[in-house]
């Protein structure tokens, strides 16, 4: 089933596909959610972002005065995500659109005027300053503080796993403003100028060998009073509301799985197992077919939950179920790909003999980020159990 | 669970090996990972301490110990320390048996002293581009010409490929084919026409040099024929139990090591106000892994006893190899997940363990090949 097949969405899909083919950056895109690897890629990403907004393919749900389309169809955003994924083109920075949604819903007019046009033009990338060394899955226990001092807020603490932190002009920050309040209630949201004195960004080196995430340190960073988004104590609400707007990635994820499965079959054509072409081995055929069934199941799962979301009937467990199933299946596909490639499966990118220039090796290693980031599989199962099934809360 | 397979000598040896690794390997390993190769001097240092060469007869400068349990101790300690750079297992467990069992007296006198002292690094070259686990597909040829064999072909995925001074090359000496088509020839560093390709870019094991080797009209004196002409395939088969047990023993030790470390991590790392190990989900995962690693340990120790007694069949070794390495994959996989985001950072041992473990189910015969061997032995 192709989502939106047989509807005007298909016509739209054709337009988007042609647009992506004509405008997408040409640089190599790795598996998962990654940062540009150099200034040239950053520039390309910024141009690409600007063109997507300009064409109305991004930001259609924004207020009309900031470039949105009043009669927009929310399902179009999924089609855009799917087509970008299908072309293996880079996704615009998710931190930017997350921040945009927070500002649109909770920001002042002045904030919207100041920041939204520069998000649309691609000039400013935004990073999401949520996770901390001791507050990942347990985000609400974050300890970065913002203390009011006269007309300013003084921020101290540390964030981690900050995608694009090293390329961002601004950060969408969650910080604790009321240490006395219950943990979810003492958090506020801020706009943080990444170039402000006291901000230090340190790229991490990850399992993949690349640096997509950063640590960000705040040493008494002074923010103006109007840097707060919404009211003090509203941070948790704002963060959840903006995250809830971010469903566009679901369609893209399914397309990634479909591509991965096709790649797997394609790459298996050149592989021999015990002297026979791999595709003639029973075991290989059984495994490939079983994985295909799972990819189709994941697609249906994603599309069903999207349809409910679009109809305003999303269930609490929908997004966690899809994320859990996607990320675990994605890992299984990559694991199987490496087994299937046999000895050549250990050759990584850069080696001239690496299959598909090491795409599978990168996908295998990055697959571990998917099972952990954005709520680990364990957290997803907890949410499904507690909010979805109404089971008692985990005993603590 | 207490292990019964070792006696006091082995335990004492283990202490020495552990100390050696901590002193001579661990402090340099990160640098070797960046360089893609370890320092050559670690071989001579290891030989001085008896970490390699102990199974070579004393008359050739070795330790004169013939007991695979010592080999297992070295393999286990290297795995526990995640010290994959130096190819000691290759030397002790794979090359040594070939030389000890197949070399004639003249060859032993010529080769064993340098091997035992660690001054000469050895490798064995079976795999070729495109052959993988299928040795019958070997295309490297050796043609007799007077007192020499003229070798032509290419090998790949050769551990110690860059460091090696002497390489046991599996070559086709009878174009007619069949299982008597292969022989083992020892190619030496300075022989004209023997060249090395690049040090391969790999998913893991970054400190180990793994390379391509090329042979273009390399003239190898007949004195360098190892074992009997046409018996190469049988020579390879004879050593399979040791090779596979070497990998299996390492797999269990690596699993135990990363599991212990993960248990410690889950005791200190807190989320939602409590150590993450105290969540039932984590506790059950750790309990399962701990149980399975214990089972694996008992099983592998039993296999070790059989191997030392010369009673471990290649089918039994194939079972041990695939099952323990698949267990290792599962253990590192679960342990990485328990580390959360930190499992994704290179500076955490579990991230490296994850990348390094991947090869275990592939080299020395893939899991699929092991299952073929076991399955065929069942008569199906």
TrEMBL record, chain A:
A Pfam family that the UniProt record links to this protein: Acyl-CoA_dh_N
A molecular function GO annotation: flavin adenine dinucleotide binding
Acyl-CoA dehydrogenase/oxidase N-terminal domain sequence ranges: 10-123
Record domain Acyl-CoA oxidase/dehydrogenase middle: where: 127-221
All residue ranges annotated as the Acyl-CoA dehydrogenase/oxidase C-terminal domain in the record: 233-388
Keyword Flavoprotein: yes
Listed GO CC annotations: plasma membrane
Cofactor(s) the protein needs: FAD
Keyword Flavoprotein appears in the UniProt entry: yes
UniProt keywords, alphabetically: FAD, Flavoprotein, Oxidoreductase
Family matches, as PANTHER family: ACYL-COA DEHYDROGENASE, ACYL-COA DEHYDROGENASE FADE34
The family this protein is said to belong to: Belongs to the acyl-CoA dehydrogenase family.
Name of the protein described by the UniProt record: Acyl-CoA dehydrogenase
TrEMBL record, chain B:
Domain Acyl-CoA dehydrogenase/oxidase C-terminal: 230-378
Domain Acyl-CoA dehydrogenase/oxidase N-terminal: residue ranges: 8-119
Superkingdom per UniProt: Bacteria
Keywords, alphabetical: FAD, Flavoprotein, Oxidoreductase
InterPro entries: Acyl-CoA_dehydrogenase (IPR050741), Acyl-CoA_DH_CS (IPR006089), Acyl-CoA_Oxase/DH_mid-dom (IPR006091), Acyl-CoA_Oxase/DH_mid-dom_sf (IPR046373), AcylCo_DH-like_C (IPR036250), AcylCo_DH/oxidase_C (IPR009075), AcylCoA_DH/ox_N (IPR013786), AcylCoA_DH/ox_N_sf (IPR037069)
Entry similarity comment: Belongs to the acyl-CoA dehydrogenase family.
Function, in words: Catalyzes the dehydrogenation at the alpha-beta position of ACP-bound acyl chains. This results in the introduction of a double bond in the lipidic chain, which is further transferred to the epsilon-amino group of lysine residue in the mycobactin core by MbtK.
Protein name stated in the entry: Acyl-[acyl-carrier-protein] dehydrogenase MbtN
Organism: Thermomonospora echinospora
């Amino acid at each position: 089933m192709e989502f939106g097949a047989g509807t005007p969405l298909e016509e739209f899909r054709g337009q988007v596909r042609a647009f992506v083919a004509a405008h997408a950056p040409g640089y190599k895109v790795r598996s998962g959610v990654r940062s540009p690897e150099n200034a040239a890629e950053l520039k390309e990403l910024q141009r690409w972002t600007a063109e997507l907004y300009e064409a109305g393919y991004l930001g259609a749900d924004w207020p009309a005065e900031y470039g949105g389309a009043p009669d927009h169809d929310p399902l179009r955003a999924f089609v855009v995500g799917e087509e970008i994924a299908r072309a293996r083109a880079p996704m615009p920075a998710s931190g930017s659109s997350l921040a945009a949604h927070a500002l649109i819903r909770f920001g002042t007019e002045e904030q919207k005027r100041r920041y939204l046009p520069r998000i649309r033009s691609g000039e400013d990338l935004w990073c999401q300053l949520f996770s901390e060394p001791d507050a990942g899955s347990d985000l609400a226990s974050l300890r970065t503080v913002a203390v009011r001092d006269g007309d300013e807020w003084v921020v101290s603490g540390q964030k981690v796993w900050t995608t694009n932190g090293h390329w961002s002009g601004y950060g969408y920050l969650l910080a604790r403003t009321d240490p006395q309040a219950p943990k979810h209630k003492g958090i506020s949201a801020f706009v943080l100028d990444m170039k402000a004195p006291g901000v230090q960004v340190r790229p991490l080196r990850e399992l993949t060998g690349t640096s997509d995430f950063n640590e960000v340190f705040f040493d008494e960073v002074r923010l103006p009073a109007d840097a707060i988004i919404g009211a003090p104590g509203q941070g948790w609400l704002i963060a959840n509301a903006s995250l809830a707007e971010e469903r566009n990635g679901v369609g893209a994820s399914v397309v990634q799985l479909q591509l991965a499965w096709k790649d797997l079959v394609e790459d298996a054509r050149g592989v021999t197992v015990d002297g026979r072409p791999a595709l003639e081995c029973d075991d290989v055929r059984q495994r490939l077919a079983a994985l295909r069934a799972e990819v189709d199941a994941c697609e249906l799962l994603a599309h069903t939950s999207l349809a409910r979301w679009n109809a305003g009937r999303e269930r609490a467990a929908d997004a966690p179920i899809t994320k859990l199933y996607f990320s675990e299946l994605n890992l299984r596909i990559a694991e199987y790909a490496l087994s299937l490639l046999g000895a050549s499966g250990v050759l990584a990118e850069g080696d001239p003999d690496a299959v598909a220039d090491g795409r599978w090796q990168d996908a295998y290693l990055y697959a571990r980020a998917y099972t952990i980031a954005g709520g680990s599989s364990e957290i997803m199962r907890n949410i499904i159990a507690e909010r979805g099934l109404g089971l008692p809360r985990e005993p603590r | 669970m207490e292990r019964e397979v070792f006696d006091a000598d082995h335990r004492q040896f283990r202490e020495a090996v552990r100390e050696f690794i901590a002193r001579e390997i661990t402090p340099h390993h990160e640098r070797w990972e960046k360089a893609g190769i370890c320092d050559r001097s670690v071989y001579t240092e290891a030989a001085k301490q008896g970490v390699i060469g102990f199974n070579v007869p004393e008359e050739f400068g070795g330790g004169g110990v013939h007991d695979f349990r010592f080999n297992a101790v070295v393999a286990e300690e290297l795995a526990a320390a995640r010290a994959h750079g130096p190819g000691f297992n290759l030397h002790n467990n794979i090359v040594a048996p070939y030389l000890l069992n197949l070399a004639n007296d003249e060859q032993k006198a010529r080769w064993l002293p340098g091997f035992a002292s660690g001054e000469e690094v050895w490798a064995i070259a079976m795999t070729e581009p495109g052959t993988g686990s299928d040795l019958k597909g070997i295309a490297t040829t050796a043609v007799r010409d007077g007192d020499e064999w003229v070798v032509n072909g290419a090998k790949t995925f050769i551990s110690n490929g860059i460091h090696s001074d002497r390489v046991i090359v599996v070559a086709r000496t009878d174009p007619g084919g069949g299982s008597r088509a292969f022989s083992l020839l020892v190619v030496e560093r300075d022989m004209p026409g023997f060249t090395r390709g690049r040090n391969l870019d790999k998913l893991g094991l970054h400190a180990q040099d793994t390379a391509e080797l090329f042979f273009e009209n390399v003239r190898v004196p007949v004195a360098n024929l190892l074992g009997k002409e046409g018996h190469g395939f049988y020579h390879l088969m004879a050593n399979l139990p040791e090779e596979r047990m070497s990998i299996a023993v390492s797999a269990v030790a690596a699993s135990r090591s990363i599991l212990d470390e993960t248990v410690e991590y889950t005791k200190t790392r807190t989320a939602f106000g409590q150590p993450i190990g105290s969540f039932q989900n984590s506790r059950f995962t750790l309990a399962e892994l701990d149980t399975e690693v214990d089972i694996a340990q008992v099983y592998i120790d039993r296999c070790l006893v059989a191997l030392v007694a010369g009673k471990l069949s290649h089918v039994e070794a194939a079972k041990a190899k695939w099952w323990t390495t698949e267990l290792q994959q599962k253990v590192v996989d679960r342990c990485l997940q328990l580390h959360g985001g930190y499992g994704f950072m290179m500076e955490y041992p579990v991230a490296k363990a994850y990348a390094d473990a991947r090869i275990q189910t592939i080299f020395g015969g893939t899991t699929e090949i092991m299952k073929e061997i076991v399955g065929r032995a069942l008569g199906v």
